[in-house]
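Changelog excerpt

This revision adds worked examples to the README so contributors can see how folded entries look when concatenated. The first example is reproduced verbatim below.
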Amino acid sequence: MLINPSGDCCNRLQRVEAWRHELHIFRDDSPVWQGPIIQPEWRAGEVEIFAADILAWLDRRVPHDSIAFGDSDLTDIASWLIEDGFAPDDPGHDVHVVGPSRVTGGRAYTRNIGQTGDHLRDLAETGLDYTAVGSTIILLPEDHMGTVGRLTDADFPDGLVVGQDGSNLVTRWIIAGDEESGVIGEDGGADAYYGLLERYVEQTSITSNASAIAAARAKRRTSTPAPLFIDTEEVTLSPDAAVDVAKLVPGWCLDITTTATCRTVTQRMKIVGVKALETGDGESVQVQLAATGAEVR
């Protein structure tokens, strides 16, 4: 956020401290974003504030207890990680579970080992989605298909880019746990269309072969076939687009129809990024979309 201070603003802005204060953003008098200030910068005539959402706190927390999960849904494991991470010093948070991930598996965490945010991202790579809206952390299944609107070529007046992410195409996944445990699981193989593309990943929190297999299956589900994406990073949505900007939340979907490029797309796609920019000339909104876990099965 870039601020051009006037009046008494400088006296207030000079007291801003990283991690001590939060940035809150409102749209039409309704809160839409908040999180800790990470880096304030003061210059002649302007102050720039860099902030992150509430999940940034979990990148500065570690597990405070040791725990082992058996055949548990990933949303239950994620809920524990979040609650444990915030337990010693809670900035104020809620957890909302949209629905179970329907991916189960054993995980173990050791007190003081690893960052909580990293543990949460590991879960998100194997069948779970999560996002932050204000002070609420939302957990939802990877194949969640809730839609918040529909967009067509008319809603992208400056055009768009339809791409296929070949760098994330994998037909066989091998997931290993801790080296001493000998835990390992795999899913997939040579694809009749793509051939054989293999990836090996270690996730030391995984405690059983069955859990490793479930994790490999979840990763293959989102990496075969090569996922489509729509990039509008440099493209502003039309102000007449039939969507509520406040509802453009990563993890939810938009129904997309585009025939403007040589690759026709008519499908429900997941919101993976949103950028809103307010200037003296008005507001611009960009949205990034990718195939959902259900689409790439």
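The second example, added in the same revision:
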Amino acid sequence: MERTETQRKILEIGKREFLEKGFKDASLNKIVAEAGFTKGAFYGYYPDKTALFEDLVGETAKELLTRFKAAQDDYFDLIPEGRAKDSLELSTQHLHELVAFMYDHFDEFKLILCRAEGTGYADFIEVLVELEVDRSEEYYALLRKNGMLSGSMTRQLHHMITRAYFTAVCETIVHDMPREEAMKYVDELAIFFHSGWSGLLRLE
């Protein structure tokens, strides 16, 4: 979408203010004053600071969800190929791709993960967790039906483990890890959590 110079300035100042103070404490008056415009000029682009925050992160969040859902679909292709045991390896590959995307849009995910209280993005990790658990439950049921999985877990435990995993992955952004360090960190996380998944699920 083409932006006017005025709008780009508002977005630049707005991002800085949100990163520094978070959505709830960010001052619309300060954003407007620092940008050198009137509130009337601001309202010509956004009805409120919620809309400004949405413009800063919305497309990026939507793209991550699209990639995330596509990655989940890939697991189902393993079943007819008899490659269910490759699930964990595929999971690590997708994890790298998603974390790389997050680092390509670091500021946006810093806003989503650390500065979004008071917006619809405050529970973004929980949205990912629910998507993951729902789709994984379908996948495990299909594996079990095909005699490829003998273990089980309750949905509650599944949710708890997935929440812990995703929260740990997002710590890379929360703690401002350098990209290379973050990739090593998520590799180690994958090894740790995959050992647990393997023990519980017992893929045949």
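Reviewer comment on example two: The mean pLDDT is 89. Residues 1-47 form a domain with the Arc Repressor Mutant, subunit A fold (CATH 1.10.10.60).
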